[in-house]
Write a structure and sequence with these properties.
Shape: globular
Largest sheet: 8 strands, parallel
Bound molecules: D-xylitol-5-phosphate, zinc ion
Oligomer: single chain
Number of strands: 8
Order of helices and strands: EHEHEHEHEEHEHEHH
Distance between the termini: 14 Å
Helix content: 25-40%
Number of helices: 8
Strand order of the largest sheet: 1-8-7-6-5-4-3-2
Length: about 220
C-alpha cells in the first residue's frame, strides 16, 4: 500500500521544502500532475519543473500526464527523471505505442481512465500496463469531492488485475482523505493519491500516519 501525495496542492513558493516534508512524513511516491489546457481545463507544469523536482527528492516521481497526444512528450518526461509515467486512454491516439515507449525507457507505464470512461477500455492494455490509475474526480483541479461510483470501477479493475495474473499497481486519484481512504482500499486500491487531503493539513506526518492506520486495518480485515 503506497501513498502518493499530489504536489499540485503544495506551496510552490517553497516546493523543495514541501518535497522534503512529505519525504520525511513517509510518502512512497511524489505524484506530479501535468496539465496542458487542452485535455483538461488547466495548465500546470512541464518537464523543466519535473527535472527540478527530481533534484529535490529521493522519492520516485509518479508523473500523471493529463495532456493530449502524450506520446509526443514521453521522451521529455522520462529524461526529466520520472519513475512512473501515466497516460490517459482518452488522450493517447496510440495507447499501446505510448505504453511501449514508456517501458522502453525502463520506466513503469501507467494507464488512466476518467470517471465516465468504462473499465473495459483497459482490457487490451492489461498485458502491458504496470499501473492502472482510476480517476475519482474529473481531472483538472485538486480539492474536488470523491465520486462514489469510482468504487465499483476500482473493484472491477481489481478483478481484471487478478485475471491478468501480472503485478499491476492499482492507483486511485481524486478526493481521497483520511475519512474515505479505507473504503478506497477495501475496493481494491493499493496506491492512493492525495493532494488537498495531505497538503491541506497542518502536519503531513500525522496525516500520512493516520491514512496508513486506516488502510492498515483493511489489510488486517481481509
Ligand atoms: C486532478 C489531479 C489530482 C489532484 C488530487 O486532476 O490528477 O492528482 O491533484 O488532488 P485532491 O486529492 O485534492 O483531489
Ligand atoms: Zn493526478
Amino acid at each position: 500500500m503506497k501513498i502518493s501525495p499530489s504536489i499540485l496542492s503544495a506551496d510552490f513558493t517553497c516546493l523543495g521544502k514541501e518535497l522534503k516534508a512529505i519525504e520525511e512524513a513517509g510518502a512512497d511516491y511524489v505524484h506530479v500532475d501535468v496539465m496542458d489546457g487542452r485535455f483538461v481545463p488547466n495548465i500546470t507544469i512541464g518537464p523543466f519543473v519535473v527535472e527540478a523536482i527530481k533534484r529535490a527528492t529521493a522519492l520516485p516521481l509518479d508523473v500523471h500526464l493529463m495532456i493530449d497526444e502524450p506520446e509526443k512528450y514521453v521522451e521529455d518526461f522520462a529524461r526529466a527523471g520520472s519513475s512512473i509515467i501515466t497516460v490517459h486512454v482518452e488522450a493517447a491516439r496510440h495507447l499501446h505505442k505510448a505504453v511501449q515507449m514508456i517501458k522502453d525507457k525502463g520506466l513503469k507505464a501507467g494507464v488512466s481512465i476518467n470517471p465516465a470512461t468504462p473499465v473495459n477500455t483497459l482490457e487490451d492494455i492489461m498485458e502491458d500496463a504496470d499501473l492502472i490509475l482510476i480517476m475519482s474526480v474529473n481531472p483538472g483541479f485538486s480539492g474536488q469531492g470523491f465520486i462514489p461510483s469510482s468504487l465499483k470501477k476500482i473493484e472491477a479493475v481489481r478483478r481484471m488485475i487478478g485475471e491478468a495474473g501480472r503485478p499491476i499497481e492499482l492507483e486511485v486519484d481524486g478526493g481521497i482523505k483520511i475519512n474515505n481512504i479505507k473504503e478506497v482500499a477495501l475496493a481494491g486500491a493499493d496506491v492512493f493519491v492525495s493532494g488537498s487531503g495531505i497538503f491541506g493539513t497542518g502536519d503531513y506526518k500525522k496525516t500520512i500516519a493516520a491514512m496508513r492506520k486506516e488502510i492498515g486495518s483493511v489489510k488486517a480485515e481481509v
